[in-house]
Amino acid sequence: MSVDQIVSRLKLFGAKSIEREEGVSGIDVEPAARDLVNDLERYPHAFVLACIADRQTKADIAWGLPHLIREAAGGFDINTLLGLEKDTWTSVLASSGHRLATKMEQLLPAAIRHIRDRYAGAASRIWANGSSGAAVARRFLAFDGVGPKIANMAVNILIRDFGIRLTRPMPDIAVDTHVLRVFERLGLLGRLEHSQLRSTKDKQALRLQLRARELNPEWPGELDWPAWWIGKTWCHAGRDPECYRCDMRSVCPRDGVTSN
Fold this sequence. Notes:
Blueprint: H1 3-19, H2 31-38, H3 44-53, H4 59-73, H5 78-82, H6 86-96, H7 101-119, H8 133-141, H9 148-162, H10 177-185, H11 201-215, H12 224-233
């Protein structure tokens, strides 16, 4: 099976799985929480806050946070959030189950202030008409605590799940351990020798990003979601992968898989 065929199958799986979702893919939150982060017209800042929170915790916790904040604040407009007392932020985040609750106490209010100061309170201006994918990623990077992974993830979600039309250059893949593992097992990225595993995380991330650009230059980040979902759901690291369930099973060389 050629690399091009594997990439085409990966993109097809991604497209089909997105068709089954409404708005942000891959989250399991209550309807009110989902509706809030999907409402880019009235509450685009809910999406931004969820993206910033989506690190070192379950995605469901991160994407459910805006709803918890709204319930505590009694509303979700920018001015209401700007006036929210520090104790309220602390209480909501402490009870949320987020592993970085203390850090989020700083980052989320700072994000609201940045949206006020830079975008006059309208977060949707971050992805304004005519923007390139790279420009939108750069704007996300301007938020405190946001690095390349979250910036690229946010832009890829906007394009993929919400149909936001952006121009080239498009965003990179959001580097993740699931994505790296799936790329290696699919034979899309060469596995490192043992002596090379000491490479820095930055170097590993760059290898993955450059390879995604080679494989899908029109939109490298298109490969992000399907690889992440496969790694999270079937292509496990700490236990046997469930190859028999995976949509890529007929084309996957199972590079490095010694069981199942």
